[in-house]
Amino acid sequence: MSEVPPVHVLFWFDVEDYLTPESDDALLGLLDCFERQGVQGTWKVVAEKARVLEERGREDVIRALQRQDIGYHTDTHSQHPVLAEYLRSAGWEDGVEEIIRRERPGYEDTVRILGPSSTFGQAGGSWAPQIYPFMRDAGIPLFMDEASHIGLDGAPFWYCNVPHINRLETRVTRMDFEAGEKGLRQGIGRFDEIHRDVVDDGGGLISIYYHPCEFATLAFWDGVNFARGQQPPRPQWKPAPLRGAQQMAAGLELFDRYLGHIVAQPGVEVLTGRQLLNLLPDNAADRVFSIAELADMLTFSSGAIEHRFVDADTVLAPSEIFALVVEALLQIMLTITDEETENSADTALDLTQIRVVVGQDTPLGPVHRQATTLQPDAPLASDQLLEAAIDVDRYLQHHGRMPDAIWLGSEAIAPADFLITAADLLRKMAAAQRSRQVTLPSTIPLRTGHLDSERHVHDDVWNWVVFAKDFDAPGLIELARLQAWTLKPALLHYG
Ligand SMILES: [Zn+2]
């Protein structure tokens, strides 16, 4: 352990203005600042920007970017239809395929021109949960942004198998270069304040982000061309209004001093998205539980389901708990079958040998919300519940996600109700194990659960200037809520 708590500062840039050539110079100016200070940022580049840098012969910018950490910021960013527009009515699998169809060629262009990406960041407010299978398919491991759709109390989190730096809330800052020396003074003051808070907390992250085009232009390039759902014909696309070379140089000079101040702080390390991944291992994979250990964790007394800490270093997402419970039911069923064949007498079960293991990947959540067809407290046959686990286990293996419903014959049980009810059964059996008198209760009353993690998904989020004024995408928010089964804190591990 080091004596000074580690404070890691993430600088990330959305490199997107492909219509204003002067923004290339702002980008180069910022890259120069990082080279001078001997540190790296994460530069999330729009594929069209990478392509125009190539077309404009900006080898200088491309080379400088290659020496930094690269992220991907969509193929064309704000051209309609943007991602949330073309996915507005999509389901899960068709949505995933459509993102791959539209985004994969652009991503391959950025790989060819700049190298592979550590990070994905969405274009403006244009987000959909179907991006995560695309990211995994493309091999982009991290999501880093300050987008409004989902956050976990200002801390890093896992969602859909992807670690997120998003909505860090009080740990996000920036310096207002437009306010000149006063802006720099205030920016440094604010950084120092957050730095002290992070040190008091024993270490953590600070997130700082800009768009390089901000230093070159007075307005965003996409607001000028694509605001409120508009898309003029390509020949009419125009660059953003310029600040002018002198103002741009002044802004860059202030940024250089801001960065210099941060780099000089003792205990502060400027970190890229790629480097951060080393601090965010998911310790849950391969974790082994006995029935008693699993039952201890299943304390959803009010029916509210959320992630659970196993210890200070390991946390399970609700879908991981669901998969463990399914595996436990399956193993209990196998134990019963074995014992029945060995002796016909009605002897007590021995569950002490059963072990269940967390998988490598967090199962995704269901993709439709399906209600339970039985009434609460209806008595469920325990052996039917165990049998249902066979099919659920196969579903998890086949689809890599939770089923929309668990079938007891023709009756559907919603996953949250199934988890809470099965948790009751497991707790009962684990308690009986302690007194060495385990038998399978013939019935277990159906209980009602709900995924409390859904509260971290926000719905009033479609207010990006590029969307039409009345744009809404409730279907995407519903899918996002269902995927909250995968939500859990991403814990920083300082080795
Ligand atoms: Zn952007």
If you had to describe this structure to a student in words, what would you say it looks like?
- 41% of the residues lie in helices and 15% in strands.
- The protein is α/β, with parallel strands linked by helices and 495 residues long.
- It folds into 2 domains: 306 residues, Alpha-Beta Barrel (TIM Barrel); 166 residues, no CATH class.
- Strands 1, 2, 3, 4, 5, 6, 7, 8, 9, 10 and 21 form an 11-stranded mixed sheet that branches.
- Strand 17 and strand 18 form a beta hairpin.
- Helix 1 runs parallel beside helix 3.
- The chain is elongated and about 85 Å long.
- The structure holds zinc ion (ZN).
- The site of zinc ion has 6 residues, from loops.
Could you list some keywords that capture this structure?
single chain, 495 residues, alpha/beta, TIM Barrel, 2 domains, two-stranded antiparallel sheet, binds zinc ion
Describe, in short, the structure shown:
The protein is α/β, with parallel strands linked by helices.
Class from helix and strand fractions:
alpha/beta
Would you state the CATH class of the largest domain?
Answer: Alpha Beta
Ions, cofactors and other ligands present here are:
zinc ion
Quote the beta fraction.
5-15%
Average pLDDT, to the nearest integer? 95
Helical content (DSSP H or I, runs of 4+): 40-55%
The total of beta strands comes to 21
CATH architecture of the largest domain: Alpha-Beta Barrel
- Number of distinct helices: 16
Q: What does the largest sheet look like?
A: 11 strands, mixed
The CATH topology of the largest domain corresponds to TIM Barrel
Our Rg estimate from Cα atoms comes to 26 Å
Distance between the termini: 8 Å
Query: What is the total number of structural domains?
Result: 2
Instruction: Name the poorly predicted regions.
Output: none
| CATH level 4 superfamily of the largest domain | Glycoside hydrolase/deacetylase
User: Given the C-alpha coordinates, what overall shape results?
Assistant: elongated
